[in-house]
Specification:
Length: 338
């Protein structure tokens, strides 16, 4: 089979890889129906993270089961499945507490931009749909694998409640899905911080009520103006830089809540500032598996369509073009079809 490999910053290749096989009785092998490029992949692609050798890439997927290990009981060959970017047994204490991305026997995928993928802990990781979905639903189901699940977690971590005023920092696919999540959870006012016209349009389509183009202190000042000097009840931080995290903290009202899901780079959390502001922070790698059953129902029922974040579709063997388009901000998110 063929898969995506990053050989050096900016050097993405689609090349022959060993065919995956079950390594444990709890494994499943799926043939990829759709995968994609994630904004977090760009940290490696741009060389912001150290790239010391060839790296297989990709952590988002939907597919059809081809083979299962002897211990797998909840999925079978021929079923269409959705799973999160982390694999988990879904039985350890952390999983039972709702944090499958911290499973004591789990880990994170990095091989999913490929034709075939091995899924460890298949019973705890995958959810089989009752039937194969309509092809038009595949982008939305794929978005659940990471960006919609992560945007949803940002809203859950920030405890978005009916009637809240919510600020979303970041207009990538996760930030746009966070707007959709805040709307679904009942936020009355959703302020999207975005300076890109195509992303602003999608934010409004997903439920944003206001747009702020300014960043940093100027962006915080605009939030204060829009909220009568109070700040937001909840802020969803979906970038991960020091600037975006500071902007999120400062946009929250006294006693407000910040859900942060952008992987932090060059960021810290000043204890004195948090002590004085009473702002609560919660975040991390999203426990997507916790939310998948509900989100799948919302997609199949036509209530949400997070697949709209995909504005470029390419064959999987043109994955390098997909990376370039996202790196150059010519695409929000690239959908890849084998």
């Amino acid at each position: 089979m063929r898969g995506t490999v990053l050989h050096a910053p900016g050097d993405i290749r689609f090349e022959d890889r060993p065919d995956p096989r079950p390594e444990q009785p709890t494994d499943a092998i799926i043939r990829t129906v759709a995968t994609c490029v994630c904004g977090s992949d760009l940290w490696n692609y741009r060389g912001i993270n150290d790239v010391s050798g060839p790296l297989t890439m990709g952590h988002e997927y939907v597919g059809v089961v081809e083979e299962v290990g002897d211990a797998v009981t909840t999925v079978r060959p021929g079923q269409f499945v959705v799973g999160g970017f982390a694999y988990s047994d879904n039985t350890c204490p952390n999983c039972r507490y709702g944090y499958q991305s911290a499973c004591v026997h789990g880990g994170f995928f990095n091989t999913c931009q490929a034709e075939v993928v091995r899924i460890p802990h298949a019973d705890g990781t995958l959810i089989a749909l009752p039937d194969h979905p309509d092809r038009s639903q595949i982008p939305a189901l794929l978005a659940l694998s990471d960006v919609m699940g992560t945007g949803w977690y940002a809203a859950v971590a920030a405890e978005v409640r009916p009637g809240d005023t919510v600020v979303v920092v970041g207009d990538g696919a996760v930030g746009l899905c966070a707007v959709l999540a805040a709307k679904e959870l009942g936020a009355e006012r959703i302020i999207a911080m975005s300076r890109h016209e195509s992303r602003q349009k999608l934010a409004l389509d997903f439920g944003a009520t206001d747009l702020v183009t300014e960043r940093g202190d100027d962006g915080v000042a605009m939030i204060e103006d829009l909220t009568g000097g109070v700040g937001a009840d909840a802020v969803l931080e979906c970038v991960g830089t020091g600037e975006s995290l500071a902007q999120a903290r400062h946009a929250a009202r006294a006693g407000g809540r910040v859900g942060f899901v952008g992987v932090p780079h060059g960021a810290d959390f000043p204890a004195q500032e948090l002590f004085r502001s009473h702002v609560a922070l919660r975040g991390g790698a999203a426990p997507v598996r916790r939310f998948l059953p509900d989100l799948i129902d919302r997609v199949l029922g036509g209530r949400i369509d997070p697949g709209k974040v995909f504005d470029l579709t390419l064959p999987l063997d043109r994955v390098a073009e997909g990376y370039r388009a996202m790196d150059e901000r010519r695409a929000i998110k690239t959908l890849l079809l084998p």
